[in-house]
Specification:
18 strands; globular; methyltransferase; single chain; alpha/beta; 5-stranded antiparallel beta sheet; Rossmann fold; Class I SAM-dependent methyltransferase; 368 residues; 12 helices
Amino acid sequence: MSEDDPRDLTRRFARLIRRSGPLSVSQYFGEANARYYASRDPLGGEGDFITAPEISQMFGEMIGLWCADLWQRSGSPEKIAYVELGPGRGTLARDALRVMERFGLVPDIHLVEGSPHFRKTLLENVPRATLHEGLDDLPHDRPILLIANEFFDALPIRQLVRTPKGWRERMIGLEGEKFAFVAGDQPLEAAMPESLKAAENGAILEVCPAATSWMREIADRLDTQGGAALVIDYGYDAPQFGSTLQAIRKHGKVDPLEAPGTADLTALVDFSALREAVGHNGTEKGSSDAESETKVSKRCFTTTQGAFLERLGITARANALAKADPTRAQTIAAAHRRLCSPDEMGELFKVMAVVSRWEEWADPAGFA
């Protein structure tokens, strides 16, 4: 049976459940997505979904402009690294770097990508790049400009459900031969905040330990190296109840419990949890006495994707592209609308910037 045969993972999960009991949503999500991304290129019209960089070059160009502007206003450090998490084919990096170079910013390029399908394509599309599977081996001797576009939504979530017996882990078991959501047996009441203990039966709370871990590591690097991070994803800005788990195949939603490993599993990103993971305190760079280190604050900025792109000048760029090639004017206008309209990606997608105080980095453009 081939690696990407959906029956393989379905049977594996069924065996695990029969042998050891229900799986956590997190385990199911993580293993299904690992199989999914290892076995295909999901992007584009022939794939399962399309991301903003694939919609239009304008998106990557605005990201490149954001990086170049921040770099210039922060003293134009000679050594700097462009880091992108989950770069896919490298479309965003290619478009962004093209703009950066026009402003004199020629960073080292470090792309963090685990998919073997994408890693091969990345070396063709971004030949100067160094590829990584995590943050551990990134350079430590220079500031970073880190971009994470639609990265956090693909990290596995935990789901907690309120039952008549209290809060329990939401699990995936079997009803006959089909997967079904069930509540776990282990009480979670002691770990829940007091404000959530009286939630209605059936309430679902999502948490993403993996997102917290990634964001803390990013924040630690900004503390020690300087620079900024830009996170763009679809999500919400305050904690909320409800399941946002979904599966996407051929540009449509499908049952997330059907044929695991053959659809992209995602969940909305809790930006309030990302801000909490960043934390409010770092240590003053250059202090040699740990006991006398001065506390400083990293700065977090949040807005919607539509507002962010408009403030950076995407409308002017769309007009310029349409004027240069009138035959593509309608296509360009449609892409602009899809990226910025509140009815499409403009409101659902949020943008968060985290800027370190080190090296006197300026406040970023696009947030006011």
